[in-house]
Amino acid sequence: MPNPAAPWPKQGPASYFPSIEQKYGRSIAEWQQIIAGCGLEKHMEIVGYLKSEHGVGHGHANALVGWTLAGNLAGS
């Protein structure tokens, strides 16, 4: 279940995380697992995958991928 009290930064890609969790019903940790398991490596390929296979909007997908590929990990 999404954690609305997660301590995400108020600026940058992570500022989208509360709305991503609310809109799509998955935690950021779950999205990071999906990204890790998709078999793709390039930023825009993964963004396209999230958009086409999971219905994630471009800005939200971009934020998730950028944060994840930068090596950041969310708690579950």
Explain what you see.
The chain has 76 residues and is mainly α. It has one domain (14-69). 55% of the residues lie in helices and 0% in strands. Helix 3 crosses helix 4 (58-69). The radius of gyration is 11 Å and the shape is globular. Mean pLDDT is 89; it is low at 1-5.
How would the blueprint of this fold be written?
Elements: H1 17-24, H2 28-37, H3 43-54, H4 58-69
Offer a few descriptive terms:
mainly alpha; disordered N terminus; 76 residues
> What letter string, H or E per element, gives the SSE order?
HHHH
Number of helices: 4
Average pLDDT metric: 89
- Form type: globular
Distance between the termini: 9 Å
Parts with pLDDT < 50 across at least 5 consecutive residues? 1-5
Overall helicity: 55-70%
Rg calc: 11 Å
**Integer tally of domains:** 1
In brief:
With 76 residues, the protein is mainly α. The protein has 4 helices and no strands.
